[in-house]
Write a structure and sequence with these properties.
Layout lengths: L7 H7 L5 E6 L5 E9 L5 H9 L4 E7 L18 H9 L2 E8 L6 E5 L2 H14 L3 E2 L24 E6 H8 L10 H11 L1
Parallel strand pairs: 2-3, 2-4, 4-7, 5-6
Antiparallel strand pairs: 1-3, 5-7
Length: about 190
């Protein structure tokens, strides 16, 4: 699906106040956890980014807040240029981005340019019981140098693409007893970092 807006300036010019919110917490860390399509754009990604960042790592969220039509606020990762998010990522060594994708079942697709970190995360997540793979769609592999996850000082980051079934379950505290759960997810990623 094609984006309605080519960049943040076009989006900000056209969307009414309150259509989105921005969280940019600079914790002076080498790692920045981001959810550039959070809130109602790709549900569950904000919650996962917050959980992984905890109070340790810098956190950036761009969240859709409209009653409907939040997909309009999606700016593809290679064009995502909201100034506070871009600056926070560029100040960090590595960015880890959380995204939502379509697909059956509960799956995590890992991408990005930081192969060493991707391998460690993938192993930890598999060991915890998650289904992990590389997405078949090159546009969802996070390998472009222009992708916001790869704009940190190292030029390498990690991109998570997660199915709605998994995002919904992990953010649902009533289903926390089902394993692997949110704690398993967060622990696998944090140990890899």
């Amino acid at each position: 699906m094609e984006d309605k807006y080519i960049n943040f300036a076009a989006l900000a010019d056209a969307e009414p106040g309150g259509a989105f919110s921005i969280t940019a917490l600079d914790r002076g860390s080498d790692v920045c956890i981001i959810g550039p399509h959070g809130g109602k754009i790709e549900s569950g990604t904000s919650e996962l980014a917050r959980a992984v960042a905890s109070d340790t790592w810098s956190l950036y969220l761009f969240e859709g807040r409209k009653n409907s039509g939040n997909r309009d606020l999606h700016i593809t990762s290679t064009n995502f240029d909201e100034p506070r998010g871009d600056a926070l990522v560029r100040k960090s060594e590595v960015a880890i981005a959380f995204h939502g994708c379509s697909g059956e079942g509960e799956a995590i697709f890992l991408g990005g340019r930081h192969m060493q970190l991707i391998e460690r995360m993938g192993k930890n997540l598999l060991d915890a019981g998650f289904a992990v793979a590389r997405h078949n769609d090159p546009d969802l592999q996070g390998i472009s140098v222009a992708n916001i996850c790869n704009r940190g000082q190292s030029g390498m980051g990690v991109q998570f693409e997660m199915t709605i079934a998994l995002r919904d379950r992990l953010k649902n505290s009533e289903r926390n007893s089902e394993r692997p759960n949110l704690s398993d997810f967060v622990d696998a990623i944090r140990r890899a970092i």
